Amino acid sequence: MSHEPGVIIAGAAETDRVGKLPGYSTLALHVEAAVNAVRDAGLAMRDIDGIATVSSPGPVQVAHALGIVPRWIDGTGVGGTSFLLHVRHAAAAIRAGYAGTVLVTHGESGRSRVGASPRRGSPSSPAGQFEAPYGTFGPTTTFTITALRYMKDFGLTHEQLAYVAVAQRRWAAKNPRAAYRDPITVDDVLASRLIAYPFHLLECCLVTDGGGALVITSADRAGDIARPAVHVLGTGESAEAPMISQLADFTESRAFRLAGQAAFAEAGIGVGDVGHLMIYDAFAHVPIYGLEALGFAGKGEAGAFIADGNTEPGGRLPLNTNGGGLSYTHTGMYGMFAITEAVRQVRGVAAAQVKIPDVSVVLGNGGAFATAGVLVLGRQPR
Amino acid sequence: MTAKPAPVPTPETQPFWDGCAAGELRIQRCMDCAKPYFEPRQVCPACGSVNVEWFTASGRATLYSYVINYRPAPGFEDDGPYAIAVVELAEGPRMMTNLTGVPNTSEDLVLDMPLRVTFEPRGEVYLPVFTPAGGEAGDDR
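ok -> C-alpha cells follow
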C-alpha cells in the first residue's frame, strides 16, 4: 500500500462530435477537446500548469493555443497509447510537485487530414530500408501480419476473429455517437471485402476525425472539481519493436504484458477485481492479444472467450463498451477514446453503461505492438 | 506510375546492402554471446556487446507469417494482391520480405514452408526476396 498522494482524472471529454469533421484542423480538435475537458472538471484554463500531447502539433503549440503557461511539459509520442503514458507521467510529476494540474490532449484529423502532418517515412529509416520496400502501406499491412501465425499455433478460426467485430458492434448499437451501430453477423464480416488477408474490412478500425482531453490533478483537490473523481490506481508502460517484423513472438505482445503487470502490481489488483475493460482495437486480433497479455484469458483461449459472449453486452467482462475503434471511432491514435470511455463508465454516465465498475482497466497500443500503456482506474483511492 | 520504394542505406546498414549486391545475405552476430541478429546495428540486442561481426547467412528460411495485401502501396498497383511476409532465417533472425516464384494465395503460401533467398534489383540496391526452396533440404543454388 502506497502512502504517496493519490492522483485523479478530474476532467475528461471528447470533441463535440467525432467522425468526419473537415471543418476542423488537427489543432482545432485539440483545442475543442481541451476546452471541454477543463469545463468538465469545473476548472479554468489558468488552473492548468502542465501540458502533455504528441507531435504534431505538440505540447508547445497546444499550450500556446490555449494560453497555458506550463511548468511541466511532456511530448511523449509513441503512437496511439501515448495518452496513457501521459497520464502515467503526469501522475509522477504531480506526486513530485513538478505540476499541480496537467492537461492531456488528443486531436487528429485522421480522415480529413486537415492541418495534419505527412505520413511518409524516410527511405533510410529502419522501416524505410527493411519493410517499406516490400509494399507495406500503413497499419493494415503491418499490424495484421502476426495473426496467421497466431491462428496456426493456437487454432484461432476466421469465424472467431470475425466475432470480435460482431461483439463490439453490439456495444456500438447502444452508443449514439458510434459511427456504425447496425448489428452485424460473422457472415457479414467474412463477406466484407478483403483488406489484407486474413483481415476483412469489418475487422479493421475506422479512420475518423476527433479529439479528446483529460485533466489530471492531485486527489486532495477532488473536492474542487465538478465530477466524481476517477482515481489513477496503477499505471504501466513498455515498448518492444518499432518494426512488426522484429517482434520477438508473433503470438503475444511483450509490451502489453509488461505494462499490464506493472499497472496491476501498483494498483494491487488482480483480474478478478476488474469490472470493465478497454483494449485498443485497431484490428480484430488486438483485443485477443490484450486479453491474454493481461491474464483475462489463457494463451490461445481469448478468441473462444470472446466468441462465447463473455465480453459483449450481458457478458461477465464488458470490453470496449463504446464500440471501440472497430465501430465507434478511430482517429489514428485511439488511446484517448479508450480512456474517456473508461472514465464515463467509472462515473456511471456512459451511453452503454455497465454495472458501475469499482475498477476499470485501459490497455493502449502504439504502432504495431510497438508500445503499450496500461491504466488501472477506480472509484475509490487505493 | 510511381516506382516501388527503394531503400537508402545508412553507414551501419551498408554492409548488408553490399552483401545483397554480391548475391549474399550478410547479417550480424555477437562475438561474445554468439547470437545472430537483424536488423543491422552496431550493438548486440541480446547482451549489449559492441563486439559484433558480419557473416554470410545460409539464405535458407521458413515462412513465419504473412498477409495478402489488397490495397496496394504506391508502385505495387500492377502486382495484384501480393503477400507481405515475415520469414525466419535458418540462423534465427526474422525479416520482412516478398515471396516470388509462387502464387501469392492462401492456398499456396503455407506457414513454415521452406524458402531460399534470391535478390531483385530495386533503385540503387538489390532487395532480398524469398522463393520456395523446392523441397530439397539445403538447396540454395
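DSSP finds 13 helices and eleven strands in chain A.
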